[in-house]
Specification:
Layout lengths: L1 E9 L3 H8 L2 H7 L3 E4 L11 E8 L2 E13 L3 E8 L4 E11 L2 E11 L4 H29 L11
Antiparallel strand pairs: 1-7, 2-3, 3-4, 4-5, 5-6, 6-7
Length: 154
């Protein structure tokens, strides 16, 4: 398995960032592909199943994962149960400093087709995906102005 890690600093407090990142709506807004949710729960907890389809190059792909750990305002980890990877474990970590929040994504993955495929296809794909995802998350955080969740710019 290979590991990919990327962090981004956001100009917003930790609590609304964590809440946004552990919601179906927030995920859809920061995911870099079209998403169709198959599971209904808006906010996630440990043990929840995240079930969705996403479109890449016109092809719909399925991803089903379980939230295997969740520590409020600190971290959560989802483990892929069904998808294009043989193994995919994604840990999201959140740290606060001076009113800003650092979000770190760590993905352990393999397609199961050998390290060459993981290096040549997996790493560049994750790099592009998380560059875009972190840019979208930063854009959302930059709009955050301290309102309660229901009034946050969507």
């Amino acid at each position: 398995m290979l590991t990919y890690t990327r962090s981004v600093w956001l100009d917003a407090p930790l609590e609304p960032i964590f809440r946004y990142c552990t919601s179906r709506h927030g995920f859809a807004r920061q995911f870099p592909f079209d998403v169709q949710w198959l599971s209904e729960k808006e906010y996630w907890a440990r043990g929840d199943i995240l079930d969705f389809r996403y479109r890449v190059c016109g092809i719909w792909l399925r991803h089903r994962a379980e939230v295997i750990s969740l520590e409020p305002n600190q971290s959560f980890t989802d483990l892929m149960l069904k998808g294009i990877y043989r193994a995919f474990r994604h840990t999201h970590e959140f740290k606060s400093s001076g009113g800003r929040t650092c979000v770190t994504d760590t993905v352990e993955f393999t397609f199961g087709l050998g390290k060459t495929v993981d290096w040549l296809i997996g790493l560049p794909t994750l790099r592009r995906t998380f560059e875009k995802r972190h840019r979208l998350l930063k854009e959302w955080a930059d709009q955050w102005n301290g309102h309660v969740e229901g009034n946050v710019a969507n």
